[in-house]
């Protein structure tokens, strides 16, 4: 099965839930396990929150765009913002690194995304935005996995 979608929304915190739910609905035909759904929703949540919070500082005007494809059992998704960008991607991807300690941010977003996805890449330019791309494969649900 192959499918494709795009979703664009204003950079406000409430739209993180919209993105998470829309993407969860998008992957439903893959018949994911509860664990896969949970991991996928977490990746989406972290990527979108980063775009809204760090890319645009929750400005309520700018747009976050998600593009996703399904090819067989693999979902590829990009989350794009045209905001502040990341000066040092390697540093930003280090566990516990945060630019917002005053907001009680854990600095684990990229680490979590990386651990729950099959591949993760980040491209960014200061002043022109960031693209987070990840891939995740889903296993067909079997009777054994349904019983977990």
TrEMBL record:
Q: Which UniProt keywords apply?
A: ATP-binding, Kinase, Nucleotide-binding, Serine/threonine-protein kinase, Sporulation, Transferase
Q: What Pfam families does the entry give?
A: HATPase_c_2 (PF13581)
Any idea where the Histidine kinase/HSP90-like ATPase domain is?
Answer: 35-140
The signal peptide stretch is none
Gene Ontology molecular functions = ATP binding; protein serine kinase activity; protein serine/threonine kinase activity; sigma factor antagonist activity
In terms of SUPFAM superfamilies, this protein maps to: ATPase domain of HSP90 chaperone/DNA topoisomerase II/histidine kinase
Family, according to the entry, reads as follows:
Belongs to the anti-sigma-factor family.
HAMAP family recorded: Anti_sigma_F
Under what name is this protein listed?
A: Anti-sigma F factor
């Amino acid at each position: 099965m192959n499918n494709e979608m795009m979703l664009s929304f204003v950079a406000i915190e409430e739209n993180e839930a919209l993105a998470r739910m829309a993407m969860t609905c998008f992957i439903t035909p893959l018949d994911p396990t509860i664990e896969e759904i949970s991991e996928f929703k977490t990746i989406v949540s972290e990527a979108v929150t980063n775009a809204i919070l760090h890319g645009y500082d929750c400005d309520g005007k700018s747009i976050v765009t998600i593009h996703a494809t399904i090819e067989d059992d693999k979902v590829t998704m990009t989350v794009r913002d045209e905001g502040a960008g990341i000066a040092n991607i390697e540093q930003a991807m280090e566990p516990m690194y945060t630019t917002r300690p005053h907001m009680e941010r854990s600095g684990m977003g990229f680490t979590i995304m990386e651990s729950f996805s099959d591949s993760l890449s980040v491209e960014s330019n200061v002043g022109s935005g960031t693209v987070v791309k990840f891939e995740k494969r889903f296993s067909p649900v079997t009777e054994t996995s349904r019983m977990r």
